[in-house]
Amino acid sequence: MPLERCALEGFRVPCHGPIQRGHIINFSMARGNPEVRRILKRQPEELMAPLCEAHNVGRWSESAEGRQILLKRNIRRFGRARMTRVIDGLPWKTPKPEWTLEGMLA
Fold first, then answer.
1. Nearest-CA neighbor of 36 among 102, 95, 105, 106?
2. Are 78 and 49 in contact (CB under 8 A)?
3. Which neighbouring-strand residues pair with 21?
4. Closest CA relative to residue 59, chosen from 26, 93, 97
C-alpha cells in the first residue's frame, strides 16, 4: 500500500516530517462555538487532509490558498455535493458567506 502524500506538497515550503491528519476547518474558526468544535474533534474525513508536519504545524493549511487546495482535493475525492452538504451544514452561530464552500473557494 503506498504511503499517503502531503496534500500541500509543493505549496510554499518543502515538505518534511511525518504525515499527519490536518483539519481543513481549523479550531480557531470555531472559537466560541462548542457544537462546531465537537464536530471538528470527531475528525470527519471530509474536513481532514493528509499533511506533512511542515504544512500542518506551520499552519500553511490555514491560509486561504492552502484551504482552497485542500477543499479542491476533497471535492475530487468525495464530490462537490457531499462537500457542500458538510461545509455548509456546519452549525455556525453567525453564518458568514465566506464560511460556505463557495465562499472558501472564492
1. 95
2. no
3. 50
4. 26
